[in-house]
């Protein structure tokens, strides 16, 4: 299968990146991670350096310089898809336009509820009993692009931000790779559709829609 050359942007622990990376090595996931971009020194960056040659860190860069250099790196490596995985910078409109429909993001809430930062805190404050994550296409708004996939978790009385984050990330590790695969095969690139036939979603403990 021809794999789509993909870049992952990170800023933190990089647990989503790790799960995307692991899945990208499997035959039926139609993407390979060629470039990793970090905007800071973080655990994800350290991990990436050990497995992806083209791992770059842009610490303390002005937005316009960062985006220009990153764009050149992506072009030089024939990147076709960008996956934001806990990337904390907001990308500029010009950059988003250049990569229209080619940037995906995972956001820790069931959008359009709770766009923006600190979603777990706000979800607890609002007394929500259900929370989740969304994979969406990045457009010029904040967490407003077309929704590709969502997962949901239950919140119980004993949960706090830490336990919610753990549950959310666990669900994201399942969701994101599958959502990327679906996006590549069904929505955007429409390649290699047959290889997905007969693959059933066996995961039932968390509610998913992908
Ligand atoms: C995830 O919860 C993701 O939804 C949000 O940031 C977190 C990143 O975690 N955008 P990690 O760096 O992938 O562990």
Describe this structure in words.
With 210 residues, the protein is an alpha/beta fold. It has 6 helices and 8 strands; from the N terminus they run E-H-E-H-E-H-E-H-E-H-E-E-H-E. The protein has an 8-stranded mixed β-sheet with strand order 3-2-1-4-5-6-7-8, with helices on both faces. The radius of gyration is 17 Å and the shape is globular. The protein binds 5-O-phosphono-beta-D-ribofuranosylamine. 5-O-phosphono-beta-D-ribofuranosylamine (GRF) binds next to helix 1, strand 5 and helix 6.
Question: Which key terms come to mind for this protein?
Answer:
globular, alpha/beta, Rossmann fold, 6 helices, binds 5-O-phosphono-beta-D-ribofuranosylamine, eight-stranded mixed beta sheet, single chain, 210 residues
Number of helices: 6
* Average of the residue pLDDT scores: 91
The CATH first-level class comes to: Alpha Beta
- Coarse structural class: alpha/beta
Q: Determine the N-to-C terminus distance.
A: 22 Å
The CATH topology name reads Rossmann fold
Strand order, biggest sheet? Answer: 3-2-1-4-5-6-7-8
Q: Tell me what the CATH architecture is.
A: 3-Layer(aba) Sandwich
Radius of gyration: 17 Å
